[in-house]
Amino acid sequence: MEENDQLDPEKNQFLTRGCCHGPQIYQSNEGIFNHSCSKLDVYDWLKDIPIPDHYQPFDCIEARFKNNRKDFYRLPADYACHVGDIVAVEAMPGHDIGIITFTGELVRLQMRKRGIDHQKEEIKKVYRKARLTDVEKWLVAVAHEDPAMFKARAISARLNLNMKINDVEYQGDDTKAVFYYTADNRVDFRELIKVLAEEFKVRIEMRQIGARQEAGRLGGIGSCGRELCCSTWLNSFHSVTTNSARVQQLSPNPQKLAGQCGKLKCCLNYEYDAYVDALKSFPEPVVLKTKKGDALHQKTDVFACLLYYAYKGSENEMFPIHFDGVKDIIDQNRRGQLPEKLEDFIKVKEKKTDFENVVGQDDLTRFDKPKNPEA
Q1: Euclidean distance between CA atoms 178 and 172, whole angstroms
Q2: Cβ neighbours around 51 below 10 Å, total
Q3: Which of 242, 278, 294, 325 could potentially form a cystine with 321 if both were Cys, beta carbons 3.0 to 4.6 Å apart?
Q4: What is the pLDDT of residues 273-293, one digit of tens each?
């Protein structure tokens, strides 16, 4: 993406809708939807599998709108649609403009996953493929979003409302605007809705989102150096607890465990199940009794299958013992036997390497030496 494209606010607004560029009024918009530009893209892994001749194609599609908002819609009879088509869909009130993200049997599976019955009549409908007038209204509506957000922030500050408006989404027919906000406490925004309706002359809807959803809409770079998962591919948020960090032997440091949203990082759940499965074979961290003295558990290296123990009074000197050796010591203690010492059960010894200057880069006189010895 070129630098001028990043500075173009209109282009950025359509990037959040999965478009590689803004739609053109008098040109074909068949290639407007680009999978590489879609924030929450979907790969249709069933597209190359043909359906039987007697099988009726699935009559629902998934359409995406701004950011991570998606919904399912029913197609009219004998309507041929393709991924990337700009369509006018049913909304309350009026109609909205969306882009078809995928069709076919994958839609059936996604609806089943979300617990939506595709046979219900409550499913909204696809009206038509977007006409010239629909695209014109859509362009006008999208152009109103950023100015409306800045004005709404100024109005809420003037009304002394403890809330943060972080995004605005206009409906495709330019008759409704949804203001997304975050707030720590309950906010009485009835007066705000009246002022916004008078200012923008559209129907106003206030929708509260959480801190994680706000981070997903605003985007950013995480401590790992990559874009935030919630703004690139993560479309559902699961609860994250401190137990996930404790099981993975992470330091309980709030500054390291919290993300840009101020909540625990979503990535703490990625490897949690693997750690839980690995810890099932580990013994409980108990006091190991030897003739040399009692040893206390200090830390655990899960995937190396090592438990670190240290004698009472000398906690700085730890001994890595394989969990089979720890089980052996526990069995001996239960039978009333005491092994000689922990050192007899060490199978893996930590290698302590000193710093070695192998290339001479840290020599203070390295610049004093001539590059050409003959000079």
Answers
A1: 12
A2: 12
A3: 325
A4: 999 999 988 888 889 999 888
Residue showing tokens 């030897």: 290
Domain 144-209 of CATH type 3.40.50.300: no
Q: Which of 96, 84, 83 is nearest to 125 (CA)?
A: 96
CB 89 within 8 A of CB 129: no
CA–CA separation, 178 vs 191, rounded Å?
Answer: 16
CA trace torsion 26, 30, 31, 36 (10° rounding): 130
Q: What is the pLDDT of residue 2?
A: 40
- Strand pairing category for 288-289 and 203-208: unpaired
What does each C-alpha distance from 54 to 51, 57, 109, 126 come to in angstroms?
8, 10, 20, 25
Radius of gyration of the chain (CA): 30
Provide the residue ranges of all domains of the chain, joining segments of one domain with +.
3-130, 144-209, 215-278, 288-345
Beta strands in the chain (DSSP E): 60-64, 70-74, 86-90, 95-102, 126-129, 164-170, 176-182, 203-208, 288-289, 294-301, 306-311, 319-322
- Collect the ranges in the chain with pLDDT lower than 50: 1-7
**Residues 318, 310 contacting (CB under 8 angstroms):** yes
Question: Contact, 33 vs 150, CB < 8 A?
Answer: no
Query: Which pLDDT score is estimated for 3?
Result: 41
Neighbours of 87 (CB within 10 A): 23
Read off the pTM. Answer: 0.75
Q: Provide the phi-psi class of 344: left if phi over 0, else alpha when psi is between -120 and 50, else beta.
A: alpha
Q: For the residues of 140-161, what is the DSSP string, one character each?
A: HHHHTHHHHHHHHHHHHHHTT-
**What burial class does residue 181 get, using C-beta atoms within 10 Å of its C-beta: 0-12 exposed, 13-18 middle, 19+ buried?**
buried
User: Token pair of 245, please?
Assistant: 């960090």
Residue 218: how many other CB atoms lie within 10 Å: 15
